Amino acid sequence: MVLSHANSMTRDDSVASTFASRYVREQLPRYRMPDRSIPREAAYQIINDELMLDGNPRLNLASFVTTWMEPECDKLIMGSINKNYVDMDEYPVTTELQNRCVNMIAHLFNAPIKEDETAIGVGTVGSSEAIMLAGLAFKRKWQNRRKEQGKPCDKPNIVTGANVQVCWEKFARYFEVELKEVKLSEGYYVMDPVKAVEMVDENTICVAAILGSTLTGEFEDVKLLNDLLTEKNKETGWDVPIHVDAASGGFIAPFLYPELEWDFRLPLVKSINVSGHKYGLVYAGVGWVIWRSKKDLPEELIFHINYLGTDQPTFTLNFSKGSSQIIAQYYQLIRLGFEGYKNIMENCKENAAILREGVTATGWFEILSKETGVPLVAFSLKDSSRFTVFDISENLRRFGWIVPAYTMPADAEHVAVLRVVIREDFSRSLSERLVNDILKILRELDARATHAVRVSSATAAQSDDGVVSKKSVLEIERDVVAHWMNAVNKKKTGPC
């Protein structure tokens, strides 16, 4: 006897389209796991629809992080997405690929290693983890030296510029190290090496230099810092080293500025971090930290585990992590080679120059970024009395562009900036399109501000004591916009 299952099917089960099912009518689970399962097609469609409201990664000009890779690399990533990198015994080839990447990057940074030697370094989730590891190595070495000298080792500090990325503040707070910041000044938005060396004392575990400031893309003068610090070390008998945070510039300088001395060619540079997921051209999730030599990484920080198969040395803050990004980094290094990276960086530099010219031609902006450095354009309004860079940033989102607006750090807070990062997938045509959209917004904001001035002239507010006061242009502009939005909202009768 054959039993029919027709009666047991729900109406939703018999409908092929997810949009004809009950799942698109029910409220989505947000804070509690739902009691019942739903079909995979429905789960996919619901989540995919919500993700459409995210910004387009290709138009996210705020981020240094890679947003495009070749289809062949995408296949390698998906093929290894289920591999846990920490299982070195199970995935020995992946471990070998990481070691190859470490050695290639070490040679790129002119590490003093012989052909038959292995470079000292490790892959990380990003530059934040890399900086934590480098900072811990400096702290431990300083503590060991102080203990040998019979001196206290409870007040370590790091000297750096106020332009450092937030991960340095995290390291200082998490691992109880004082962060001594060299303040910025208008027109000089990187660490001053002279002031930095003046702040160094016997408790300084290292001076951190930035090769590619997040604010303006500018390279700090690591060579001058090395020379000044060498003299101070000789005078004081200290042994204060340098760490180079090359998160953004580490995969740029060797190809565009090979004569620039910033890396292991300088004796005091003991470690360097770089983000593979920035100009290393890999999707988010990979960074690298390289040490000058084995003696610069204290042995007691390295853990040895054997419960995954063989003895495995490990020095990471994370344990389990995907193998995909490491494999993708190796793909890029052998696929592009020195020639390919150089061509891409030159393209980025040229497209940044095109954008810089276009922004300058508007007549509204002052360029703050330098031509030498990370290929980005940072610019501020010459006159912010009618509208601000924050207004421009907000309006650019109408066209899909994500361009950050921010103020500079301590002692330069009054300077507000827009910044556009030029990545591999940002072409000349996109640069020209962005300038056109900026011009449209400038005209709109200028016309709106002019209208607001006329309104304010005709409707000056009078206070109780008879004194006439006028609102600022920006206050009037925001009042007009709020009034307009309120009128629009009142006319809404339901979904359209």
From TrEMBL:
Record GO terms (molecular function): glutamate decarboxylase activity
Pfam name, any one: Pyridoxal_deC
Assigned keywords, A-Z: Decarboxylase, Lyase, Pyridoxal phosphate
InterPro entries: Glutamate_decarboxylase (IPR010107), PyrdxlP-dep_de-COase (IPR002129), PyrdxlP-dep_Trfase (IPR015424), PyrdxlP-dep_Trfase_major (IPR015421)
TM regions (residue ranges): none
Tree of life domain: Eukaryota
Enzyme Commission numbers on file: 4.1.1.15
Catalytic activity, reaction form: L-glutamate + H(+) = 4-aminobutanoate + CO2
Modified positions (N6-(pyridoxal phosphate)lysine) in chain numbering: K278
Enzyme class: lyase
Presence of the UniProt keyword Lyase in the record: yes
Known cofactor(s): pyridoxal 5'-phosphate
Family under the similarity heading: Belongs to the group II decarboxylase family.
Name by which UniProt lists this protein: Glutamate decarboxylase
Species whose genome carries this gene: Urochloa decumbens
